[in-house]
Amino acid sequence: MSVGFLNQLPHFFPGAEVSVIAKKGIHELLSFFPPAKHQFVFSKDEYKGVKGLVKFGNKIKRTESFDLFFCLPDSFSAAIMGAATGADKRIGYKNELRQVLLTDSFSKPQGLHRVEEYIRLIELFTNKQAKPADVSLNHQFSKKDYVVVNINSEASSRRLTVNKAIELLNLLRNSIQQKIFLIGAPKEKEFVDSVLNQLSDTSNIENLAGKTSLSQLAEVLASAQAMLTTDSGPAHLANALGTQTVVLFGAGKESNTAPYNKDLRNIIRLGQLSCEPCEKNICVRYETPQCLERLDNKRIVETVKLHLN
User: Fold this and answer.
1) Nearest to residue 206, comparing CAs of 191, 224, 216, 192?
2) What is the pLDDT of residue 188?
3) How far apart are CA 261 and CA 244, in angstroms?
4) 123 near 129, Cβ under 8 Å?
5) Fewest CB within 10 angstroms: 117, 171, 223, 246, which?
6) Residue 274's pLDDT is what?
7) What integer pLDDT is reported at residue 30 of this predicted model?
8) How far is the C-alpha of 219 from the C-alpha of 207, rounded, in Å?
9) How many CA atoms lie within 13 A of 29 on its CB side?
10) Which pLDDT score is estimated for 309?
11) How many Å separate Cα 184 from the centre of its chain?
12) Sign of the C-alpha dihedral computed for residues 29, 34, 39 and 42 taken in this order
């Protein structure tokens, strides 16, 4: 969701040199982002605790003197890192008393999408208006005849159960001719395998979970005709890469964290339970997240089919 912010920088600061900090792993996506002078990769394993944050910030300080440090994460640790860079101005939202480490801090506006929260931070600092948000990643991949499906999520309240995934994939396989790629992180391979092994028809379905780097996953997503996914990181990635994305929402709040490009997304929500969206990572009311379990499989598949050639 930060690419919208980065795409605004030439508008607010014409000719400025831009450098970025990215977590290790996520840094593989930087080749799809606007060019940066420096790419600083932060690893929690290498830079542990407060001392590690200060050490990493000092490393940036030794590389170059920076005028501005925009602190997009609203954590205290991100502000510590920013202070250690020695940047003349350190800008961010108030949270956890971290404003003592920022030179310019602002109250976070309510009711905005995360993309708009980030962009609003520049507007508050500069007192200038942003141009329309551009949440797109650069690539040269061409479309191919397949569909990507992601049944995973870090949070159990956003992840499909095995039974729901089986029902949905069986119907999808019987309804479309395209090849189906299942994706996931290495730790999700076993879960995806357990679903795949119980499908009534596994023809032309391949499990890529744990087999791709993040940059390779970006190519898979960018080349797909469409993606069917839970509320998850890959949903945002596919949407920013220009792929039609059908997103199943339950616990998450789409007004704040849905994939941003509305013309490239379909959001499917049950909308019948008083507890949704709860924004919790674990369902505390039901044994399994009924906001996902009760979604109409036929409606989901028909929505995917709208985007197939």
Assistant:
1) 192
2) 96
3) 10
4) yes
5) 171
6) 94
7) 95
8) 16
9) 24
10) 84
11) 14
12) negative
29 three-class SS: helix
| Half-sphere exposure in the Cβ direction for 49 (13 Å, CA) | 1
Strands 89-93 and 179-182: unpaired
Residues 47-59 as b/e (b if ≥16 CB within 10 A, e otherwise) read beeeebbbebbee
Give the separation between CA 150 and CA 1, rounded to whole angstroms: 19
C-alpha 243/C-alpha 146 separation (Å) is 12
10-residue mean pLDDT profile of the chain (309 residues): values are 96 97 95 96 96 98 97 96 98 94 96 96 98 96 98 94 97 98 96 97 97 96 98 96 97 92 97 94 94 97 96
Name every residue whose Cβ is closer than 8 Å to that of residue 58 and which is 6 or more positions away in sequence.
Answer: 84, 85
**Helices and strands counted in the chain (H then E):** 11, 11
Q: With contact defined as beta carbons under 8 Å apart, do 76 and 97 qualify?
A: yes
Q: Which residues on adjacent β-strands are paired with residue 226?
A: 147, 244
Rounded CA-CA distance 167/262 in Å is 28
Two structure tokens written together for 212: 């791709």
